[in-house]
Design brief:
globular; about 240 residues
Length: about 240
């Protein structure tokens, strides 16, 4: 990859350094992603709009923004100016990474909203209902621990991840079975959906965890298929 010899810039405001007269330059795309998330959390409408445009809908809350910093890193990198000597094929590769990264945000956002609404409808909106009865204690304990370590504290549920969603769906299968049946013939049994959720999560981590790993066309096709399934399952009947 060849990028102009300068600090990466915010794609919204153009800043290339931290705030303040002695602000140091952003030394990586992750710092730009933190800048974007922080600005959005603080009420920056342009920065929030830029993020929301690329994650297919409104950002849930503060913890969701912070949770997506690692994914936003890839999105920010793809919007930096490239010099003419960019290797052939690089833009296609980065496009694949961005598609997978943004799909991951959309999947997490939709599943989070959907699962919470289903549990509340069944067990009630009080924490003693949907949270205590619909989510296993180990997951609740893990989320409570994450919340305590976070500066911006939300309800513990917002610290769940994709693997937790699979566990919650499995535990409360009778509540989700009706929506799952709409996915036939793509999925015939619950196990296939849970396995693909794990596969999707592994691919997401692989994409934003390694700068050397390039997703394949097959990976991208799987992501598109899984994203369509999540849209179908979580949309009103």
């Amino acid at each position: 990859m060849t990028v102009e010899n300068q600090a990466p810039r915010c794609p919204v405001c153009g800043n290339d350094r931290k705030a303040g007269p002695k602000g140091k330059p952003f030394y990586g795309f992750e710092r730009v992603a933190w800048h974007l998330a922080s600005k959005a959390i603080a009420g920056g409408r342009r920065h929030r709009a830029w993020i929301e445009e690329r994650v297919d809908g409104p950002v849930l809350n503060r913890s969701a923004l912070l949770k997506y910093v690692d994914i936003l890193t890839d999105v920010v990198e793809a919007h930096q100016p490239l010099v003419a000597e960019t290797p052939a094929g690089f833009l296609d590769e980065i496009d694949l990474k961005v598609e997978i990264a943004t799909a991951a945000i959309t999947v997490e956002r939709r599943l989070s909203t959907y699962i919470r609404e289903v549990l509340i409808e069944k067990y009630g909106k009080e924490d003693s209902g949907w949270w205590a009865q619909g989510v296993k204690k180990p997951i609740r304990d893990k989320c409570n621990s994450k919340m305590e370590d976070c500066r911006y504290r939300e309800h513990p549920f917002f610290y769940t991840d994709l693997i937790d969603y699979g566990d919650i769906i499995h535990k409360n299968w009778i509540l989700f079975e009706h929506d799952f049946k709409r996915l036939s013939p793509s999925y015939l049994v619950k196990k296939e959906l849970i396995e693909d959720l794990v596969k999707f999560n592994e691919l997401r981590h692989l994409v934003h965890g390694s700068r050397r790993t390039i997703p394949t066309i097959d990976d991208n096709e799987f992501v598109g298929m899984f994203l369509s399934a999540v849209h179908e399952m979580t949309s009103p009947a």
